[in-house]
TrEMBL record:
Co-factor requirement: Zn(2+)
Family per record: Belongs to the helicase family. PriA subfamily.
GO process annotations (BP): DNA recombination; DNA replication initiation; DNA replication, synthesis of primer; double-strand break repair
Entry's cofactor comment: Binds 2 zinc ions per subunit.
Sequence ranges assigned to domain Helicase ATP-binding in this UniProt record: 316-482
Subunit note: Component of the replication restart primosome.
Residues reported in the UniProt entry to bind Zn(2+) 1: C546, C549, C586, C589
UniProt EC number: 5.6.2.4
Annotated InterPro entries: DEAD/DEAH_box_helicase_dom, Helicase_ATP-bd, Helicase_C-like, PriA, PriA_3primeBD, PriA_C, PriA_CRR
Annotated NCBIfam families: priA (TIGR00595)
First-level EC class: isomerase
Function (record text): Initiates the restart of stalled replication forks, which reloads the replicative helicase on sites other than the origin of replication. Recognizes and binds to abandoned replication forks and remodels them to uncover a helicase loading site. Promotes assembly of the primosome at these replication forks.
Protein known as: Replication restart protein PriA
């Protein structure tokens, strides 16, 4: 039998291998679909790599030698056969190797491959005589006899160290051994025990949870079972029976038994030997939820808009046909309840549900609603979980034990057998875009996966992306509108504060929080209401500048200024993670006279604490919520009213329901407008509208104050007026000339390398190649660039880019394929 395998290596197509003879026995159940979705270890050149079985077929004549697989790595598939067309489509559309697409879809740590290790040779004794001269790697080798594959690769790659090691290899003091890595994550098993059913029925009649006289209980158990039990054995049976009743499970973890009876091990062994107790190792799933989630009861009645929307959704779910919906609902209109009711109908049809959110913060909000409604049927998939937790959650979905997956963009690949509903919440958010390595858009791929499974897909947002709304206008998506908040609560009143006029230079009034916002914060505190302040910038200040020469302190690896994080007293690069002490000197003139410039969320927090010392102030950003449990605690305190002023980045803007919030202040609304992005105005409108929606969701009405230096900009004015349709019309008009999506499609071509001149040279050659190709084939493609990327150096790699624009997606794909074939001739040095 031949099998089609996608290898976890940078190969654009799949490969053909043959099965070992023992695996192709007819009638053994090991034919056809039995193999699809399983991992295999296969030879690839002179190494062995992990591969994934995509299809099988009968052996046929080939004009090349078909290699055999080395072995199967799994007893059961890791993905269902109906995922294969989806994986192939993704690989083709995004021009990425299919094996690496599947590797990205699976939990981390499941791609073993052959690696080289340094091990002690037959003349290793000679190394001991010079051990004092050896570096740390040599002492590790002498102590352990082996150096790991990852460390070996690093050592041999180093010019000086590699030369030294090869000298010892030639003298047979060291050997290079090839070995295959094992999975770095595995299933977790736990020893459990239960009373045999026949024995349990006999002692059930004499069991009492209040029993304390174990001597009397020993006699009663002995009579009931017809054998003489020891006192310790009677205690084991008593606690097993008690724990079974408390947990409502027949199997009890041995660790729970030992908590009640520490000396249970020896009598348990005797009971197992007599057949009274059964012992087994059962798989357990690590709990990813952390703290107890809030409970949200099912509302008895729906709003008229929720009912109307569901009247359109539910028939499509029942028909089991692919139907894409765009749910455009204002903040607080009850979109979450629509998702929950649609999920109920999908489960009733025997199908599964996939819910995608753009970031972990939103996953935390939605998971509480879904767990409240569906309990253990819900699993999570996002980067906030440990490797072990993600592994377990993935397998619960794969096995069918869970039928609802809630997660960030990577949850798109969740191995649900039959998804009938896919929800993409906050579909406009850029968090759905993966921008490094395997680049894809989670929202767009969700629509494709729904099409492949004949499922309903709901794209939900209060501020849909211009592209999605254009698809609804053209009829590609069905538009569902919800224009009223639950219980007819009014949308907040929005006031714009012009920072050009409100200079705040009066004595005692200077600061980031200007007079009008400051007064409203004070009034809100006096009325015991909650407030939210938004500034989408981490850190205390955006840079540290030298007073003597005016040079900012920059990252050593990126062309960006280091951000001052005052709480940690260090400067940090938000792109590569490089950091150094805030007590540094100017890299140019060595001056120590450095001052903060610009402001970030830490500075806002400091100012607010100074203005309102009596207030309980908290901050939410990626620095304070790296720990998921800490994030949940902050959310609960906010929901319980224990925080007066919450300061946050965009993490506080979306999805959260804080009934006590009546005031939202946007500290500086202009940050996104200066970005070199044709979507800058759209993103600014979306962020302002989303955070505006946090106000007035409870019994009291809400108010929003926007501080801006561009009060006449249409994105800010339309956000003040809650006018998404006007923004859509304005953006569609502006993107017509010069043409930008959704009028055309874009392909970004980025060239990176360590030598800037080589990168520039390659970019110029690539631009000429693309223009020549567009002209030769008479396409309607437009080539823009080359030019340095907006961030022209990241992690010691210089970046240039080109843009391809065109209305015909086939022409764009053909050009990318053509470029991919010729890129070896265009690239030079380490440019890629």
């Amino acid at each position: 039998m031949h099998i089609e395998v996608a290898v976890a290596a940078p190969l654009r197509g799949s490969l053909t291998y043959s099965c070992p003879a023992e695996d192709e026995t007819p009638g053994s159940g090991k034919d056809g679909s039995f193999f699809i979705g399983r991992r295999v270890l296969v030879p690839l050149g002179r190494r062995k790599v992990t591969g994934y079985v995509l299809s099988t077929g009968l052996e046929e004549e080939k004009d090349f030698v078909v290699k055999r697989i080395t072995k199967f790595l799994d007893e059961k598939p890791l993905f269902h056969a109906n995922m294969v067309p989806f994986f192939k489509w993704v690989a083709e559309y995004y021009h990425y190797p299919p094996g690496l697409v599947i590797k990205a879809a699976l939990p981390a740590g499941l791609a073993p491959k052959s690696v080289k290790q340094l091990v002690a040779g037959k003349n290793v004794a000679e190394l001991r005589t010079i051990s004092q001269q050896l570096e740390s790697w040599g002492r590790e080798l002498l102590d352990n006899g082996v150096i790991s594959g990852a460390e070996t690769k690093k050592l041999l790659k180093d010019t000086v160290t590699g030369r030294e090691i090869r000298k010892h290899i030639r003298k047979k003091r060291i050997l290079v051994r090839e070995t295959v890595e094992t999975d770095s994550i595995r299933e977790k098993y736990e020893t459990c025990c239960k009373i045999d059913s026949a024995a349990r029925d006999k002692i059930e009649q004499v069991f009492s949870e209040e029993e304390t006289d174990f001597g009397s209980l020993q006699k009663q158990y002995s009579v009931a079972l017809g054998i003489t039990l020891k006192l310790s054995e009677s205690k084991v049976l008593f606690y097993l029976q008690k724990l079974c009743k408390q947990s409502n499970h027949t199997m009890v973890p041995f660790r729970d038994l030992k908590k009640h009876y520490p000396s249970a091990a020896r009598p348990l062994k005797s009971l197992v030997g007599n057949g009274i107790v059964i012992k087994a190792d059962l798989r357990v799933y690590r709990n990813p939820f952390g703290e107890q989630l809030s409970f949200f009861p099912r509302p008895g009645e729906l709003t008229s808009e929720q009912s109307r929307v569901l009247e359109q959704l539910l028939p499509s779910i029942r028909s089991k046909k692919f139907t894409p919906f765009l749910l455009h609902g204002v903040t607080g209109c009850g979109k979450t309840e629509v998702y929950l009711r649609a999920a109920e109908e999908t489960l009733a049809m025997g199908r599964d549900v996939l819910v995608l959110v753009p970031e972990i913060a939103l996953a935390t909000q939605l998971e509480a609603h879904f767990v409240s409604r569906f309990g253990d049927q819900v699993v999570l998939q996002h980067s906030g979980l440990t490797k072990a937790e993600r592994f377990d959650q993935y397998h619960k979905a794969l096995s069918g034990k869970a039928r609802i997956v809630v997660g960030a963009r990577s949850a798109l690949f969740a191995p649900l057998p039959d998804p009938g509903l896919i929800v993409v919440d906050e579909e406009h958010d850029t968090g759905f875009k993966q921008d490094d390595s395997f680049r894809y858009h989670g929202r767009d791929m969700a629509v494709v996966r729904a099409r492949n499974h004949d499922a309903v897909v709901i794209l939900g947002s209060a501020t849909p992306s211009i592209t999605s709304y254009a698809n609804s206008v053209s009829g590609k998506y069905t538009l569902l509108s919800m224009k009223k908040r639950v219980a007819d609560k009014p949308l907040p009143e929005v006031t714009i504060v012009d920072l050009n006029r409100d200079t705040g230079k009066k004595k005692g009034k200077k600061g980031i929080i200007r007079s009008e916002l400051r007064a409203r914060l004070k009034q809100n505190l006096q009325m015991k209401n909650q407030s939210i302040l938004l500034l989408n910038r981490r850190g205390f200040s955006t840079s540290l500048i030298c007073r003597d020469c005016g040079t900012p302190v920059q990252c050593s690896h990126c062309n960006v200024s280091l951000t001052l994080h005052k709480n940690r007293d260090h400067l940090l690069c938000h792109y590569c993670g490089f950091s150094l002490s805030a007590k540094t000197v100017c890299f140019e003139c060595r001056s120590m006279d450095l001052v903060p410039a610009g402001f970030g969320i830490e500075r806002v927090e400091e100012e607010v604490r100074g203005l309102f010392p009596e207030a309980v102030v908290a901050r939410i950003d990626s620095d304070t919520t790296a720990d998921r449990r800490q994030f949940l605690r902050l959310l609960r305190k906010m929901q319980d009213g224990d925080i007066d002023i919450l300061i946050g980045t965009q993490m506080v803007a979306k999805g959260h329901h804080f009934p006590g919030v009546t005031l939202v202040g946007i500290v500086w609304a202009d940050g996104g407008l200066s970005m070199p992005d044709f979507r800058a105005a759209e993103k600014t409108f979306q962020l302002i509208t989303q955070v505006t929606g946090r106000a007035g969701r409870g019994k009291k009405s809400g108010e929003v104050i926007i501080q801006t230096m561009r009060p006449d900009h249409y994105a800010i004015l339309y956000a003040q007026q809650h006018q998404y349709e006007l923004l859509y019309q304005q953006e569609m008009q502006l993107r017509r000339s010069p043409a930008f999506p959704p009028h055309v499609r874009l392909v970004a071509v980025r060239i990176e390398g360590r030598v800037e001149q080589e990168v520039q040279k390659t970019a110029i050659m690539t631009g000429r190649f693309l223009r020549a190709g567009a002209e030769k084939h008479n396409t309607g493609l437009v080539v823009l660039g080359p030019a340095p990327a907006p961030l022209d150096k990241i992690k010691d790699r210089y970046r240039w880019q080109l843009l391809l624009k065109g209305k015909n997606s086939d022409e764009l794909h053909d050009m990318v394929v053509h470029l991919d074939k010729e890129k070896a001739d265009l690239l030079s040095g380490d440019v890629g």
